[in-house]
Inverse folding.
């Protein structure tokens, strides 16, 4: 499997050598990302990852002789801007495909736009509703939030936790995650005894924390968000002297959240892709070579730690490149090629898409992790 993964990565990065007839013009690829604003922890690494990979592909001669022309639009996580940019990229720029948006709320606003225009969309957002129900031209690279919920609940069962509080940001991702937590909890014998939604722009959540802390039945807290408030929840809980376990969603996979929370981040438990612990993976892991290469290149180029979010964009552009290399610069054929892509190693897992599954990852794409001494490490239980 390791040998196969290495060969596949080499094939994607050297697609100009494949035997599809040369294309006559540049391949236009659009991207809608939250490069600035409150979700820049997502969009910044995503934009930089796209630029890095496109630069590498073009330096090798492009795809079948054609260079990728990357057009990045900064939505600042605004659904209204995402709608405007999607229409512009499709109608004016005539892009082959769109990568992004960074957030689930934005993605849901442009999902039908891309579907109706028959333009492939490879979202970097996580909410499962993006691909469930399946839309023919819409895919996503982050792992399913229902799998994240199940991984968390599986760990809780091991810890003897049965009564929890749920906090969620008022974003598309937060709303979708809260629903998944509510729907799946009974399957694991878990009862949600407190549930609160907070504003994504909040800079103090002590009142919300005090409210759920007052319920003495709460054995653990699950916070579901992608905004900087993730760090605030942790700090407010520890400031209140509340030491129950804190679980975060897979939206916690950026070391900057740990840095923002400081000592309060210690012991947070969450599911994520294996990029965050790539250097500790066994040598025979099918993702390790790819993860180490991406991590090394990204950190050398941008002088910052690689995050799972940048990895989502990396996966999107390499999946798209593999499809183009196979079938050429035709959005209908590219859509079909993505849907039929199997055993494709990415930073988020090994992708195998189908007509019924436009995410292509299973629950094993997740690894439970924790924060120890200010760093991400594999969670091994207590």
């Amino acid at each position: 499997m390791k040998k196969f993964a290495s060969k596949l990565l080499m094939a994607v990065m050297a697609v100009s050598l494949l035997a599809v007839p040369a294309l006559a013009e540049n391949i236009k690829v659009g991207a809608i990302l939250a490069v600035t604003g409150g979700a820049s922890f997502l969009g910044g690494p995503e934009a930089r990852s796209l630029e890095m990979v496109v630069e590498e592909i073009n330096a090798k001669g492009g795809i079948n002789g054609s260079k990728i022309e990357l057009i990045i639009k900064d939505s600042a996580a605004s659904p209204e801007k995402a709608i405007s940019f999607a229409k512009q990229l499709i109608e004016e720029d005539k892009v082959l495909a769109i990568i992004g948006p960074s957030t689930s709320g934005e993605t849901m606003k442009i999902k039908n736009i891309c579907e109706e225009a028959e333009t492939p969309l490879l979202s970097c957002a996580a909410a499962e509703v993006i691909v469930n129900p399946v839309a023919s031209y819409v895919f996503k690279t982050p792992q399913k939030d229902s799998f994240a919920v199940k991984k968390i609940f599986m760990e809780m069962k091991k810890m003897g936790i049965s009564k929890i509080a749920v906090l969620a940001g008022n974003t598309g991702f937060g709303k979708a995650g809260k629903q998944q937590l509510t729907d799946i909890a009974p399957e694991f014998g878990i009862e949600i005894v407190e549930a609160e939604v907070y504003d994504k722009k909040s800079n103090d959540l002590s009142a919300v924390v005090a409210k759920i802390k007052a319920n003495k039945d709460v054995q653990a807290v699950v916070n579901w968000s992608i905004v900087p408030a993730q760090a605030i929840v942790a700090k407010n809980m520890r400031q209140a002297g509340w030491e129950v376990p804190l679980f975060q969603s897979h939206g916690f996979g950026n070391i900057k959240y740990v840095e923002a929370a400081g000592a309060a981040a210690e012991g947070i438990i969450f599911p994520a892709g294996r990029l965050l612990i790539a250097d500790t993976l066994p040598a025979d892991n099918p993702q390790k070579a790819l993860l180490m290469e991406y991590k090394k290149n990204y950190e050398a180029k941008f002088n910052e730690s690689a995050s799972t979010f940048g990895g989502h964009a990396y996966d999107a552009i390499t999946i798209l490149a593999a499809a183009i290399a196979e079938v050429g610069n035709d959005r209908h054929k590219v859509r079909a090629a993505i849907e039929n892509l199997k055993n494709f190693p990415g930073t988020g897992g090994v992708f195998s898409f189908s007509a019924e599954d436009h995410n292509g990852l299973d629950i094993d794409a997740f690894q439970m992790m924790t924060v120890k001494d200010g760093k991400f490490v594999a969670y091994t239980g207590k």
In short: Residues 1-9, 14-24 have pLDDT under 50 and may be disordered. The radius of gyration is 20 Å. The chain has two domains: 2-143+279-351, 145-272+367-378. The first helix runs from residue 2 to 13.
